[in-house]
Design goal:
Helix 3 runs antiparallel to helix 7 and helix 5 packs parallel to helix 6. Helices cover 40% and strands 19% of the residues. By secondary structure, the chain is an alpha/beta fold.
Length: 428
């Protein structure tokens, strides 16, 4: 990969986009949406080949689900573009302004970051989301997907480029580039492209994220592995807790906002844990600590599903806590109080999404104020940590760091600011 020439073209694309107003960018995005729709059959066929290859290679089903596209997911992709089109263009927004005593007028305005790179695993929808968010915010983007989604990504990018061509002068063709070489050497080139790429975002599992953070010589916005926790407080509505736990673990276990650990107040463990196990119905493996394990085993009745699944309940080991399973597996631990739950989460979490189920308002406030995470829920599933659910249309990822952006990253996360100063001859 010739990173120099690629980035030169992307920089030219970013400079052209910086001159386009909201109407031009929206028109180009609408043409891209139409092109994707026209190419739906080819994209789904390419995706089917990726999925078949992944299954033949032994990929676990929860991760295959992240890779696979269907009619519903495809409609969601197009809907995301429509929402992005409807959003206000942030470029040029004046975030603050004032006049100094000597008469200088100082304004702080939003501008694009410039050339953005994203390195991501599976999830071909990210190809569209990342492009659309970058384009609307005036940025060029370098896409580096994983090899297991290569056919899908190539078909999607071909459709995007056709849409930009169809937009005529409103379409900036050199605003995106897809790295289609499965060789990991191009990742090294991206991470060391000092002065050529303004920021890189890793989106995927802990291994990918840690490798990018460790090796990048360019700025990184760290999107997070999701070791998410659910704490069931002693005052919780237990039926609500069961329903939220099932949703947060089982709906899409391979998603980064699925829970991996459930913390249970000791006072309600004997009542709550059998309810939870029966609701999981043999579909989730439970790895229980020394307090929860005997409660679960001792609560079995004739016909209970875990009697028919010897591996359904296991004893947890220390490594199960703070681990991202990305599968139908959950670790469960008993805690003494909300304070112990908060301390455990802040030690074992990845600052992604955490939740408490409680009817104690003081406990809810304490949990939200003290848990160090990008998204903290009370009486709701962590599965809502998503750009679409937050109204952004799409997201580049969930930022788990504290500088520049945090939580689901929409259009504004791809902007920075600069100061514009107007005077009439002032000197210092």
């Amino acid at each position: 990969m010739d990173i120099d020439s690629i980035c030169t073209e992307l920089r030219k694309g970013a400079e052209t986009l910086a001159l386009h107003n909201e109407a031009k960018k929206n028109y180009a995005l609408s043409c891209v949406s139409k092109s994707l729709q026209a190419s739906k059959s080819q994209i789904l066929q390419a995706n089917a080949r990726d999925v078949e290859r992944a299954r033949n290679g032994g990929m676990v089903e929860s991760l295959v689900e992240r890779l696979a596209l269907d009619d519903k997911k495809f409609s969601s992709i197009l809907n995301s573009i429509d929402i992005i089109i409807q959003q206000t263009d942030p470029i040029g927004e004046e975030t603050s302004g004032w006049r100094t005593p000597n008469g200088l007028l100082i304004r702080q305005v939003r501008v694009p970051l410039g050339v953005v790179a994203i390195i991501y695993e599976s999830r071909p929808n990210v190809t569209v989301d990342a492009f659309a968010l970058a384009y609307k915010s005036g940025n060029s983007i370098l896409l580096r997907g994983s090899s297991n989604a290569l056919e899908s990504n190539k078909a999607i990018v071909a459709a995007i480029k056709q849409g930009l061509k169809d937009a005529g002068g409103n379409g900036v063709l050199n605003s995106l580039y897809l790295c289609d070489n499965p060789d990991h050497s191009d990742v090294v080139q991206i991470l060391t492209a000092v002065g050529k790429i303004d920021v890189v975002l890793p989106r995927g599992g802990a291994k990918l994220i840690n490798a990018v953070v460790a090796n990048a010589r360019i700025p990184v916005i760290q999107t997070g592995a999701g070791v998410c926790h659910l704490y069931v407080d002693e005052s919780a509505d237990l039926q609500m807790a069961v329903e939220i736990a099932c949703n947060a673990k089982m709906q899409r276990p391979g998603a980064c906002n699925a829970i991996e650990t459930i913390l249970v107040n000791k006072r309600i463990g004997s009542e709550f844990l059998p309810m939870l196990a029966r609701a999981f119905d043999g579909k989730v493996q439970i790895r229980a600590d020394e307090i929860c394990y005997p409660i679960l085993v001792g609560a079995t009745r004739t016909g209970d599903v875990w009697q028919e699944h010897p591996n359904y309940i296991q004893r947890a080991v220390a490594e199960d806590f703070g681990y991202e399973f990305l599968d139908n597996i959950v670790a469960i631990k008993a805690v003494e109080s909300v304070d112990e739950a908060i301390a455990f989460i802040n030690t074992h979490g990845t600052k992604h999404s955490e939740a408490i189920i409680t009817n104690d308002r003081a406990h809810a406030i304490s949990f939200q104020n003290r848990v160090d995470s990008s998204c903290v829920y009370v009486n709701a599933s962590t599965r809502f940590t998503d750009g679409g659910e937050f109204g952004f249309g799409a997201e580049l990822g969930i930022s788990t760091q504290k500088l520049h952006a945090r939580g689901p990253m929409g259009i504004k996360a791809l902007t920075t600011t600069k100061f514009l100063i107007d005077g009439d001859g002032q000197i210092r």
